[in-house]
Amino acid sequence: MTSATAITPASAGPIVAIDGLRKSFGNVEVLRGVDLRVAQGEAVVIVGSSGSGKSTCLRCINRLEEPTAGTIRVGGEEVTGAKVDLNLLRRRIGMVFQGINLYPHKTALGNVTLALRKVAGLGKAEAEQKARHHLELVGLAHKADSYPAQLSGGQQQRVGIARAMALEPQVMLFDEPTSALDPELVGEVLNVMVRTKEMGMTMIVVTHEMHFARDVADRVVFMDHGAVLAEGTPEDILVSPQHQRIRDFVTRSRA
After folding, report:
1. How many CB atoms are located within 10 Å of the residue 170 CB?
2. Which of 22, 53, 187, 238 could share a disulfide with 226, CB 3.0–4.6 Å?
3. In angstroms, rounded to a whole number, what is the distance separating the alpha carbons of residues 182 and 169?
4. Distance (Å, rounded) from C-alpha 71 to C-alpha 173?
5. Given 3-state DSSP classes, what are the helix, strand and coil percentages for the chain, each rounded to the nearest 5?
6. Per the confidence metrics, is the pTM higher than 0.85?
């Protein structure tokens, strides 16, 4: 997989900076003052039990959820302000979801091309050329004319990755991208994510795939009850954790 996606040059500070992020749904506080920094080109994996706020944190970064309090900056620009251009924001921040969100009436090529035309404003020929290139990068050039129903779940998720990457985002968010897949299909999606990291893309990944976190993450963040309990290298957090809460989680994950 050769590099072709344009990555914004590193700025003086972190490419993602989250300060005091809080999110409540009614009287339920899901995020309780999350602080996080992500450097250019870093792969940060967020782990923790279900309900710890991992996915909500990701969804706040690209404003799919509105933060209750706190600030989020991407590339030095605050994205939590009232006047933020959400279309431009979501072009800068790619996201791959738990569910597979392809248009069933469009081919793999059509799904990727649509994003390039509607979001990036490219002409038909340029959009198609770029879409084919990114399908090739995820190993699906031969499936360009296939409809989602003709693709496996893993292939559909790889089309989703190609669609997000084609917009040349500054940051890629992955929210449990393998959770809806049969076990034998998980590896093909994780392999594409590994190659995405090797291209230099900044990645924030929420996953229960502990082997992926151990092998690929530059840093692991453990969330518990809406807050960051600990962060460090995969060795620090997943192999030799200091907190009993994390030791219990790791033990259950191995079971």
Report:
1. 19
2. 53
3. 28
4. 18
5. 40, 25, 35
6. yes
In which element (H, E) is residue 204 found? strand 202-206
pLDDT at residue number 85 = 86
The whole-number average pLDDT for the span 177-189 is 89
Query: Per-residue pLDDT tens for 162-182?
Result: 999 999 999 999 999 998 888
Angle at 126 between CA 123 and CA 128, to 5 degrees: 100
Pairing label, strands 202-206, 171-175: parallel
Q: Which two tokens stand for residue 148?
A: 């989602």
**Could you tell me which of 175, 191, 2 has the C-alpha nearest to residue 94?**
175
CB 228 within 8 A of CB 36: yes
Contact 250, 241 (CB under 8 A): yes
Q: Mean pLDDT across the stretch 110-131? A: 93
Taking residue 167's Cβ as centre, other Cβ atoms within 10 Å add up to: 20
- What is the pairing mode between strands 28-38 and 43-47? unpaired
- The span from the CA of 125 to the CA of 227, in Å, is 46
**Residues across the chain:** 255
How far, in Å, CA of 68 to CA of 59, rounded?
A: 13
Give the torsion sign (CA, 116, 117, 120, 122).
Answer: positive
Alpha carbon distance 161, 39 (integer Å): 21
The residues that bridge with 197 in the sheet, in sequence order, are none
